[in-house]
Amino acid sequence: MAKQTKLVPAARPFLKWAGGKTQLLNEFSKRLPNDLKTGKITKYIEPFIGGGAVFFYLNQRFSFKKSYICDVNEELILSYRVIQRSTKKLISELEMLESDYISKSEVKREKLFYEIRSAFNQKLPDFKFKKYNSDWIERAAQIIFLNRTCYNGLFRVNQKGEFNVPFGRYKKPEILNEDNLNDVATLLKTTKILCGDFTQCRKFVDDKTFIYFDPPYRPLNQSSSFTSYAKNGFCDKDQLRLVDFFKELDDKNAKVMLSNSDPKNENPDDSFFDDLFSDYYIERVPAKRMINCNGARRGNINELIITNYRTKKTK
Ligand SMILES: C[S@@+](CC[C@H](N)C(=O)[O-])C[C@H]1O[C@@H](n2cnc3c(N)ncnc32)[C@H](O)[C@@H]1O
Fold first, then answer.
1. The pTM is what?
2. In the chain, which residues have pLDDT < 70?
3. Domain that holds residue 114
4. Is residue 8 part of a domain?
5. What are the tens digits of pLDDT across the range 41-99?
6. In terms of domains, do 92 and 142 share one?
7. Same domain for 218 and 277?
8. Which residues partner with 288 through β-bridges?
9. Between the N and C ends of the chain, which has fewer C-beta atoms within 10 Å?
10. Beta-bridge partner residues of 212
């Protein structure tokens, strides 16, 4: 049964991730399927997991028999898998990195940051992402370290897949949060971790499943295409593939929720998602634009929440 509360420890995101949904959790919680509360839903699937804000939030409130998470970003999925399989070893790697970093002056911290960044990037061409091995633990520790100590706490790569965020000046960054990593590991015991395209989760979906899609935002124009999570972007063709997939899962009687930025924020005539999802329930909720190359465009915007079921708000 999904209907139980506070069974799993209070795990929360261990990486800061572009497009993180923490600020929208309250709006999502008002629009969850009723089957989640009655216990009919026993599976949770999140095919664009990123930092996992929604995954962690839901798992604190409902106990799913099984969760499935997926992302195309190999480095991100490597981190989840290392926490799942080698929690203790990862914690000791991070402990070493943290004590080394904290003991240093700012100049030396910066030097250490760039040393780790280049070691991380140098290993990329030959790195074996397909087969779990001990190198994964060092790499996961580097990812968490870089994410915690880089400017703005992000994971951004260039076309070659190299991490390219500069050093960030923090007095006491939290490089290791042992309790949280242990909590995340506990939650991941009942989670299957997939790496690749969102359609991979197809075979796990049934009528007892709740799926939440948080795809990369649709770029408003070339300059605002902030789709740097992976080497390959997510274009309109992918958004269309996602609509087809949404329909396919609806046909399987799963409960499906999807969020995206509202294109009408920029162009009131742009009905891209309204047209594509016209058979479903579309709501607009206020959000703050957190990341945008163009600082002037930060501010209040609407986010779309699309469901294949009526929510309390659409009734
Ligand atoms: C908006 S972010 C998700 C943010 C997440 N909800 C959070 O709270 O951190 C979108 C994610 O989709 C992933 N992604 C991009 N293309 C993908 C694809 N074809 N299949 C699966 N994941 C993809 C990106 O790597 C990124 O992590």
1. 0.92
2. 1-9, 220-232, 290-299, 315
3. 77-179
4. no
5. 999 999 999 999 999 999 999 989 999 999 999 999 999 999 999 999 999 999 999 99
6. yes
7. yes
8. 300
9. C
10. 257
